[in-house]
Amino acid sequence: MAVVSIETLAFLLFALLTVGASVGVVLVRDVWHSALLLGVALLSVAVHYVMLRAEFLAVMQVLVYVGGVLVLITFAVMLVRRDPVSDADADPDADTGVTR
């Protein structure tokens, strides 16, 4: 039986986490959950950079992608998101100008 190092196991774990989170980004219907899964995928890529002894790339990955792009997506989702309860209670003729 072959002896597997801790580093190999960690690499495989984070590789599975990256692939799983990336697939989840595409398959999840809620945009908020998709943004969170994108953050998980980007952070696990940063962990891969650390494992490859590329610490500068890992820091840039976290600062630029997680810190910038993901925060931008999160703010866009929070600002654009509509409340389904208020849409159901709205008057269907409100936008036509018809009064009863």
From TrEMBL:
Entry-linked InterPro entries: NADH_UbQ/plastoQ_OxRdtase_su6, Nuo/plastoQ_OxRdtase_6_NuoJ
Keyword terms, alphabetized: Membrane, Transmembrane, Transmembrane helix
Source organism of the structure: Natronomonas salsuginis
Residue ranges that the Swiss-Prot or TrEMBL entry lists as coiled coil: none
GO molecular function: NADH dehydrogenase (ubiquinone) activity
Membrane-crossing residue ranges in chain numbering: 31-50, 62-80
Annotated Pfam families: Oxidored_q3
Official protein name in the record: NADH-quinone oxidoreductase subunit J
